[in-house]
Design goal:
- The complex is a heterodimer.
- By secondary structure, chain A is of the alpha/beta class.
- In chain A, about 30% of the residues lie in helices and about 30% in strands.
- Chain A contains six helices and twelve strands.
- In chain A, the strands form two sheets. In chain A, strands 1, 4, 5, 6, 7, 8, 9, 10, 11 and 12 form a ten-stranded mixed β-sheet that branches. In chain A, strands 2-3 form a two-stranded antiparallel ribbon.
- In chain A, helix 2 links the parallel strand 5 and strand 6.
- By secondary structure, chain B is an alpha/beta fold.
- Chain B folds into three domains: about 100 residues, no CATH class; about 150 residues, no CATH class; about 130 residues, Rossmann fold (3-Layer(aba) Sandwich), CATH 3.40.50.
- In chain B, about 50% of the residues lie in helices and about 10% in strands.
- In chain B, strands 2-1-3-4 form a four-stranded parallel β-sheet.
- Chain B is globular and about 60 Å long.
- Chain B starts with a helix and ends with a helix.
- Classes of the chains: A alpha/beta, B alpha/beta.
- The interface between A and B is medium-sized, with 16 and 24 residues.
- Bound molecules: iron/sulfur cluster (2 copies).
- The site of one iron/sulfur cluster has 15 residues of chain B, from helix 5 and helix 6.
């Protein structure tokens, strides 16, 4: 079983941007949380099948040496990845179709590729789906568990708490929402060791500009109307009930 | 295995094999009746080469680092700071980490706090006060460096205690400052969980910050931070009960009467680990109107709140073994002695006991206050 997993880095929403009197402290990057789940699931799947796991970092040219990408790959190595690649994108636009097309050739040699179902820098988070379209592979999103009994069996969340089990033809791309076990902590000693020992094959990729979409205008969101409720507790409770009624909530 | 034995030798000063199998440790342990491996059995299993059996049982995680076993062991074996963390380290390296603990450790490594909060917001509690708490970055030197530690800085309830302590300092006209966003976890729980490299990394980064500024001593209301700073960082640090005690003459003149029956919970890392028993009691007793009653198990024999050594992130492991949490027993004990206030000396105690009050239905009958909160109340007139 040849397993692939994709890891990307995204702005760290925990840290945010700090605007100070004299400077703007820019945000830092972190490994994309959904990809961390995809990686964890890929590690679980490797343990189940005894397969070979290759982890592929995808990163923009200006972030190629960002420590978050190094951390993402080192975490993968420490967790048991057999080999590591880093695809460096040279691109001018941020269209996932273009990215999928550009990297597709590098995902032809796997039976299963796991990728996070979303990343906060991508509004619709559809890299996995498009990649499978370009390659002509099966695709399942919302994945929460992967098994193997000679064929691929995938558990997928269907909404409303319902989980379905599907037999999936390989090669396949799986969009992981949550690994079947929590993300395991890698102790600092192992992380440092991985950073020292890991070898990463770097691949430069030109992202084609497919055109077809042009920004006409961005709209600011409408300002919500705010009504301040005032009065003592009793009055406030009555007013709140009125508001809920007007919104058909009670 | 060699790594484990080396770690055991290092952490116990080569004493772990001097265990005489007396069983005092297991008999003293709050989890002794439930765990498949008491410290005595752990040591025996290590001798017999059955380490994996211990790790697979998860017993290494069923310990809240309360120090009771260590303080009573006739062979003076470092169980809490040695045997348990060494086994936990092996567990971590094998990737067997309980879920909540895993998340807390990932967050501490990335953000310097277990809550996945921005380090930039570490001084958020100070901004909720109606006076400015200066940062060392601005002030460069101060007599006292106030260190809230992670829970005291971010936790919704614990930061009330931090604010109370800052207010008391203001009333006492103490020249104090905080590190704000430059502060990060001091790492005592990380160490007790066996993540020694992360502990050293935190210590190195914290020491770099401490060295930038001039201060006479640190004051903290987090007993674990106090323990780490005193015994591992080697810094001049006072627990806030000591600080309040040092200022008691001045405080006494300002106290108003309170009408409470108070009991005092000895936190493990103040009492058993660092021998601080009398200072908090003297502070409480000096508040007029306060009737002081002792828990039946007090001082060296006090029962742990269950949060220490990462216990606060190990609840699901504990629940596999134990039906009643130690904190629940503890609040029932407070009821038995007729207390309506439990005064604590470590911020972690507060959420542990407040949760336990809800579980036991004693919420409303007993309240939990940090010693700084009680002192502030007496200063502000109840
Ligand atoms: S108390 Fe000390 S000597 Fe006695 S069994 Fe426990 S570890 Fe061994
Ligand atoms: S430190 Fe406390 S909880 Fe841990 S083994 Fe010793 S007595 Fe038990």
């Amino acid at each position: 079983m040849r397993i692939g997993a994709i890891v990307r880095i995204v702005p760290d929403l925990v840290m945010g941007i700090e605007i100070e009197e004299s400077e703007i402290v820019p945000f830092k990057y972190v490994p994309n949380e959904r990809d961390e789940h995809a990686l964890e699931e890929a590690v679980v799947f490797k343990e189940k099948t005894g397969g070979n796991l290759e982890v592929v970092g995808i990163v923009d040219d200006e972030l190629r040496d960002d420590e978050a990408m190094e951390e993402a790959l080192a975490l993968a190595y420490a967790k048991g990845a057999d080999s590591l690649k880093k695809i460096v994108l040279n691109r001018r636009t941020f269209d996932r179709r273009e990215v999928a097309r550009a990297i597709a050739d590098h995902f032809k040699d796997y039976d299963v590729v796991m990728v996070g179902i979303q990343s906060i820098d991508s509004f619709a988070g559809y890299l996995g789906g498009i990649l499978s379209g370009v390659l002509g592979y099966s695709y399942v999103g919302g994945v929460v568990g992967v098994d193997y009994d000679g064929g691929l069996i995938v558990q997928k969340e269907l909404g409303g708490g319902v989980v379905g089990k599907f037999r999936v033809k390989t090669p396949a791309i799986l969009g992981v929402v949550s690994a079947e076990r929590p993300i395991t902590f890698v102790p600092l000693v192992k992380l440092r060791q991985a950073m020292k020992e890991m070898k990463v094959e770097e691949i430069e990729v030109e992202v084609p500009d497919m055109g077809g979409i042009e920004v006409v205008r961005f709209y600011e969101p409408e300002k919500p109307e705010i009504t301040l409720l005032e009065g003592d507790v009793e009055e406030l409770a009555d007013k709140l009930v009125e508001v809920f009624k007007s919104l058909s909530l009670v | 295995m060699d790594m484990l034995l080396n770690r055991l030798k290092e952490l116990t000063n080569n004493k772990y094999f001097q265990c005489i199998q007396c069983g005092t440790c297991g008999g003293s342990c709050p989890y002794g009746a439930y765990t498949p491996y008491t410290p005595r059995r752990m040591i025996l299993a290590i001798r017999l080469g059955m380490v994996e059996d211990i790790l697979n049982s998860n017993a290494q995680w069923l310990c809240t680092a309360c120090q009771t076993c260590t303080s009573r062991c006739p062979s003076r074996i470092q169980i809490t700071d040695g045997i348990i963390p060494a086994l936990r380290e092996k567990s971590l390296l094998e990737g067997k980490v309980p879920e909540e603990l895993s998340t807390a450790l990932i967050n501490i490594m990335r953000y310097g706090n277990p809550f996945k909060e921005s380090p930039m917001k570490r001084d958020g509690w100070a901004k909720e006060l109606d006076f400015e708490v200066p940062t060392m970055m601005k002030k460069k030197s101060a007599e006292v460096l106030l260190l809230p530690e992670c829970f005291g800085a971010y936790h919704r309830r614990c930061k009330q205690a931090t604010k109370a302590l800052a207010k008391v300092m203001k009333i006492l006209e103490v020249d104090f400052a905080i590190l704000g966003r430059e502060e990060r976890c001091t790492g005592d729980h990380v160490r007790l969980c066996g993540e020694f490299a992360l502990f050293e990394d935190l210590m190195e980064k914290n020491m770099k910050v401490f060295r930038k500024y001039e201060f006479k001593y640190i004051v903290t209301h987090d007993a674990h931070a106090f323990n780490a700073l005193k015994n591992f960082y080697g810094l001049n640090v006072l627990h806030h009960s000591q600080f309040l005690h040092d200022n008691l003459e001045k405080l006494k003149g300002m106290f108003n009467e309170l009408d409470y029956t108070v009991t005092y919970h000895d936190s493990c890392y103040l009492g058993r680990k660092n021998g601080i028993y009398e200072e908090p009691r003297e502070v409480i007793r000096s508040i007029p109107g306060v009737r002081f009653v002792e828990f039946k198990r007090n001082r060296e024999n006090a029962l742990c709140c269950g949060a220490g050594g990462g216990g606060i992130w190990l609840d699901s492991v504990m629940r596999e073994f134990v039906k009643v949490r130690p904190a629940e027993d503890r609040v029932r004990e407070a009821k038995e002695v007729g207390a309506d206030v439990i005064v604590t000396g470590c911020v972690l105690d507060i959420p542990m006991f407040e949760d336990a009050l809800k579980v036991t239905g004693l919420d409303g009958e007993i309240v939990v206050k940090d010693i700084a909160e009680l002192v502030l109340e007496a200063l502000e007139g109840g």
